[in-house]
Model the fold of this input.
Amino acid sequence: MKFDSAAGQNVIDQGRIVGKSYPRVDGPLKVSGLAPYAHEYHSDAPNAAYGVIVGAGISKGRITAIDTSEAERAPGVVLVMTHRNAPKQFGIGHAPPGGTGPQQDEKDGGGEKPGRHNKPQLQGPEVRHFDQSVAFVVAETFEQARDAARLVRITYAVEKGRFDLAAEKDKGEMPEDTPDSNVGNFDSAFAAAPAKIDVTYTTPDQAHSMMEPHASIARWDGDQLTLWTSHQIIHWGVDGVAGTLGIHKDKVRVISAYIGGGFGSKLMIYGDPILAALAARQLGRPVKVALTRPQIYNHTSHRPATIQRLRLGAGIDGKLLAIGHDVWCGNLPEGEAENAADQTKLLYAGANRLLRTRKTELDLPLGASMRAPGEAVGLLALECAMDELAEKLGLDPIEFRILNDTQFDPEKGPERPFSTRHLVECLRTGADKFGWSKRNPKPGMVRDGRWLIGIGVASAIRNNLVMASGARVRLSGDGVLTIQTQMTDIGTGSYTILAQIGAEMLGLPMDKVRVELGDSSFPQSAGSGGSWGANSASAGLYYACENLRNAIAQRAGFNSTDSQFADGKVSAGGRSRNLADVVGKDGISAEGKVEFGDLTKRFAQAAFGAHFAEVAVDSVTAEVRVRRMLSVCAAGRIINPQTARSQCLGGMTMGIGAALMEDQVVDKRFGYFVNHDLAEYHVPVHADIPDMEVIFLDELDDKSSPIKAKGVGELGICGVGAAVANAVHNATGARIRDYPLTLDKIMAKMAV
Ligand code: MOS
Done:
């Protein structure tokens, strides 16, 4: 079904089950260890061999010699694959036979390169980044493979690489998909503005740091490949594997039923599924590969560092006159730019606007989407710059933001209104609940013993992305509804909310609904990415359920438009029948799919929020402790407040990480990330997390989907780090523009 006009009143509005909190239906499986992750399908992969990837020890250059003889002789080794004997594969530009045509949809379509998910392995002596696959050792046991991997002797010719973003940034070019945005006359408006700031912020490379490492099991049955792998978007995984191997995509089945987090790191495939598949085919037996934690940091992807210059000019009335946001980032040639100016397009009014992104080539590992790509790091800069300008104007930071609210896309004008936008309500509600009026606007004034106390705020915005998504539903004779879709649950609650949608639509209790996810043999779905999953997958399921309702009503001899589904019965015209009796012992199945029309073009669609943080900074050591946080979110219908709240708490936790800890340190001599484990790449732990609260404002967005929901997960991270940084400034007077705000940086600037 094409969703191209605002949704009217529908079954979801009943709110019998949708909109209520339900604990995760997959929770018992998770906590009892019964939910199988990619590496755990032991009985499906009998007699599996174990593969270990050998990563390049240099960042740029060539392999001049590779000696595998010792590794091949090592106990248990059954295969050593290098560029000398690896089968030919296909890179970007090569769609799999059968094409990716129907795989492409709105967001993914238009100009996307065919085969963009391909990841060929061991195709030549060239080394393009540290820990790129240079050999693959397969043995009877993991330990044997790991030991033999150390016996592969490689000699390299090292070439000079480019690893320093600051040094390379001026060679950057405008990426094709991130054109400059130039409205009005920024230069003259900025020059004439009575109040202005011109500040540069930097954000470091960051690691996704999901719990479950990338892992794959490959099994061939004739020419049919089954891959259990940890992947967020099943059809992208199928495309990548089929495209790389040059086999028809119908020959690849990808299963990712349970996923231990992704945060963007599993939107693409890396070495594990390809090497597992190649070796399994050659050996005629299943092969398992799991990356070690240290491998993940350099072998896979990360969020690229940014340098961001913010030039904001305002009148003495506090209205923004000029908004300039320049972003510099780096990546391998095939990698995308970090779109850190994206939120600046929409967040505040202002007639003169100049947004530019420049991507320069670096020889670091691939940069890719991570945890709200774009906004998450863009807001770290913009929302601190807004605070800086408010301070200069002598305005309260919240009032300054409210003064510059807009109800339409400020680049396109009133003809492109927001579908819904409740930023002001988020700010006001949060100010009230958090006790903003008690904040002392003068930094460094509030003490609690040796601690300096500060409060900060930031606006949140995250684009509402939508993706085509389908589902198959079946009501069986025992009255159980089974839902099947390629949608994934990466720890987010997809199983639970899809059960709620199904239960609501068919008038069933939650315990009569079974949800099966993450299998490419199910209808293609939006998958988990960009916070589009819950809304898009629910919408696809909604249409599938509508088709099922019609089929059931027809079988019952009822007029489908009048039929009501409640309490396990279908009723119409005063007559009522048990669903189980109507569908009979064979059951009834239906499929449905949502495709999105141009509503995202006609209306600016985004979720909004306001984040508040209170920090304590040790006046002697400059150690920062976050004491309290509050996020107020307006993100359309909240399908399940409990799982949505958990999403936001996760985002807020990540925001603390971005503000205070997370930093992949680049060795600029050798070109790799030095800290490559969770002991040295710091993310917040429980002891770092304060009292956190989340408030969802009542909101329905009828332009977003028939569910009237929007993306919510990533909204939780967008802006949080800036609220923390603004609180650190309020506490200490130190304005640190170089993330993360570690104590050495704060101490150097602390006024006390
Ligand atoms: Mo998200 S960074 O699109 O998983």
In short: The first helix runs from residue 27 to 31.
